[in-house]
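Minutes, project check-in
Item: structure for the 249-residue chain
Input as provided by the requester:
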Amino acid sequence: MDESNLNNSGSSAGSNEASVGRGKATTVVLALAAALMGWGVLESHLFRVRPKLEQVNMMGVVYNDVSTRTRTAAELFELRGIMGAFAAVLGLAMGLAGARSVRSWRAALVAAACGAAAGALVSIVAASIAVPLYERAEVASAGDVSRSIMLHLALWAPMGATAGLAYALAARHGRAVAILAATAGAAAGAIFYDVVGAIAFPLAETGKPLAAEMIPRLLGFLFVALGVAAGLVLAQRGAPAPPVRPTAG
């Protein structure tokens, strides 16, 4: 290989490294945008519904009022909507991030759509299972930090997995690695949120599915989304670089 080919190869390698760096930055930026959008859905009360009225018997007097059961059902409906929307946006964002490396609009659209649909479905199911179990356990003994961590892991780790899948579908390689990395990142974000919440916001009820104060709620979305992005970025360190094709002399 002559000097011209060596220079071209070096230039291509430098270009590839710069492209990888931009791809990592894009992943983080898109994750940040997804967190802010998910938090915006939460704060807009888009999925809030009025609890249904049902007959209540109080000391022999029967009347229609909101019961504990209907109030809990309305809160669970809202939580399903919030978690589903956040997971959908995060899956869409990571699908777009993964497609950047292959520069294919088709790959981006397919991965984003799959990530959004899978994320929404998985998160709705996770909330439907985890929250009632958590509520029943809280009735027996409230205030267990380990229970809060398990709850948030159950809510957020699945959406990390679907976001990782969306990323891998777009990038067309390393599917298992991306899913594991994104799931681990979401889990780390969930644990970090519970620790920070318990220390910095002791009165904000951060152990519940959603905190009682706005700033801790925002931090929860940020920790999870950026944890997913961090997991995917770190996973890329072990991924093979795109091949460099020197020009013919």
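Outcome recorded: The radius of gyration is 22 Å.
No further action items on this chain.
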